[in-house]
Amino acid sequence: MKNLVAEFIGTMWLVLGGCGSAVLAAAYPELGIGFVGVSIAFGLTVVTMAYAIGHISGCHLNPAVSIGLWMGNRFDKKDLLPYIGAQILGAVSGAGILFLIASGKAGFEVGGFAANGYGDHSPDGYSMISALVTEIVMTFMFLLIILGAAHSKAPAGFAGLAIGLGLTLIHLISIPVTNTSVNPARSISQAIFAGGWAMEQLWLFIVAPIIGAALAGLVYKTISPETESK
Q1: What CA–CA distance (Å, rounded) separates 214 from 145?
Q2: What is the topology classification, in CATH, of domain 2-103+112-223?
Q3: 81 CB-side CA count, 13 A
Q4: For the whole model, what pTM was predicted?
Q5: Computed over its alpha carbons, how large is the radius of gyration of the chain?
Q6: Is pLDDT of 11 > 50?
Q7: CA separation for the pair 23, 194 (Å, rounded)
Q8: What whole-number distance in Å separates Cα of residue 85 and Cα of residue 48?
Q9: What single string gives the DSSP state of each residue in the chain?
Q10: What ranges do the domains of the chain cover?
Q11: What pLDDT digit, counting tens, does each position of 156-210 carry?
Q12: Considering all CA atoms of the chain, what is the largest pairwise distance in Å, rounded to the nearest integer?
């Protein structure tokens, strides 16, 4: 249970910190943080939680990460569904807190609410195919970074920093394409509040990250296996 509580809190913080920066601070007149600031915010949520709860739950914060680690023989399958459930609930809670904060401003409208999208709902008008390729490849690379940084032969103590910087880079690349998901829980939480088109396009941001993560787990298991598998 302590692992699930840690995943709940960590994923809540990821959504509140990352999506919160997009909703509350990205477009603030003159002083807004923009795409770069949002990218850094997402990376910082992972870095901070890696050192806060990494020793408790492994700090997955993402169903795709849990699936990728399982495919790479780094995570026990009996914990997979409980972790995913805790992550989704944590993400929705983070989005709920963000909604309560954002709605306290006069004239507030939910709008996109930092939801992920393609076509007319891509930040720069990218197609569904572009979004699909982006999310698969970015999640694939994210899992390679995680699997490598957390490997038993990797330098100790730096995994959280490497993973957080990796997520920052991924956002710098892909925010204009999809608003960056690489995380089904993050996408589900924002789509619930945005509704409409966000719910209709949500399937891509569940399927693509899972495909990318599963492929990364298989690849890394082949090129650099751990000594023990589950």
Answers
A1: 14
A2: Glycerol uptake facilitator protein (1.20.1080)
A3: 1
A4: 0.94
A5: 17
A6: yes
A7: 12
A8: 22
A9: -HHHHHHHHHHHHHIIIIIHIIIIITT-TTT--HHHHHHHHHHHHHHHHHHHHHHHH----SHHHHHHHHHTT-S-GGGHHHHHHHHHHHHHHHHHHHHHHHTTSTT---TTTT----GGGSTT---HHHHHHHHHHHHHHHHHHHHHHTSTTSPTT-HHHHHHHHHHHHHHHHHHHHS--S-HHHHHHHHHHH-THHHHSHHHHHHHHHHHHHHHHHHHHHHS--S---
A10: 2-103+112-223
A11: 788 999 999 999 999 999 999 999 999 999 999 999 999 999 999 999 999 999 9
A12: 57
Does 16 have pLDDT greater than 80?
yes
The one-letter amino acid code at 130 reads S
How sure is the predictor about 230, in pLDDT bands with cuts at 50, 70 and 90? Answer: very low
For the record, the structure tokens of 162 come out as 């490497």
- 203: tokens are 């399937």
> For the chain, what percent of residues have pLDDT higher than 90?
87
What is the average pLDDT value for the chain, to the nearest integer?
A: 94
